[in-house]
Write a structure and sequence with these properties.
5-stranded parallel sheet, alpha/beta, Rossmann fold
């Protein structure tokens, strides 16, 4: 199991790190890079080429503002790419969100919520779990745990009122 995580700026790390920690918690080899689509385009292309040839199963790409990174990555691979729009501009991440979801036909980027790196990690795990029964079972256990926690909260709220 291998996932690449790439962000456009070091300032994105605090918002991307939760995804990295989740992937590692599930035993996924995680290659992490900070490569701007605009400032390090050659190095980004080299990294995507590595991903295409080293067993990477999913790429998570996080970027803010113009957020070209996920689209540039997707243009260079047929691996699933998950885009994470990052807030930080005067538009509070909406600019990044709109940039990432508006990909041309044939170059898709799955997109999660602004600053939604945790869901990007879980989506990557679900993609891998299509062919990994052990991981699928772990994710089902997590879902069951979340259901139990929610039902307990429901009981507490219902009893209070």
């Amino acid at each position: 199991m291998r996932v690449a995580v790439v962000m456009g700026s070091k300032s994105d790390l605090a918002k991307v790190e939760p995804a990295i920690l989740i992937l590692k918690e599930y035993g996924v080899k995680t290659d992490v890079r900070c490569l701007s689509a605009h400032r390090a385009n050659n190095e980004l292309a080299e990294f995507v080429n590595e991903c295409n040839n080293n067993g990477t199963e999913v790429i998570i790409a996080a970027a803010g503002m113009a957020a070209a990174l996920p689209g540039v990555v997707a243009a260079q691979t047929v691996l699933p790419v998950i885009g994470v729009p990052i807030s930080g501009s005067v538009f509070d991440g909406m600019d990044a969100l709109l940039s990432i979801v508006q990909m041309p036909t044939g170059i898709p980027v799955a997109t999660v919520a602004v600053n939604g790196s945790k869901n990007a990690a879980y989506l990557a795990l679900q993609i891998i779990a299509v062919k990994n029964v052990e991981l699928k079972d772990k994710l089902l256990e997590l879902r069951n745990k979340m259901t139990k926690e929610n039902l307990l909260a429901n009981e507490e709220v219902s009893n209070k009122y």
